[in-house]
Amino acid sequence: MFIKDYRVSIAIPIILLISSIFLIFYEGIPKSIDITGGTEITIKVDKDIDISPLKESLDGIAEVKKLKSADGYYIVIRVSEDKVDIAKEKIKEFFHVDSLDELNYSEKTVGAILSSKFFEEGFKAILFAFIFMAIAVYVAFRNPVASGVIILSAISDLIMALGGMSLFKIEISSATIAALLMVIGYSVDSNILLTTRVLKRLSKEFDEVVKDAMKTGLTMTLTTISAMTVLLIVVKLFIPVAEILSNIATVLILALIADIINTWFLNAGILKYYITQYKGKN
Question: Under CATH, which number does the domain 6-33+113-281 receive?
Answer without folding.
Answer: 1.20.1640.10
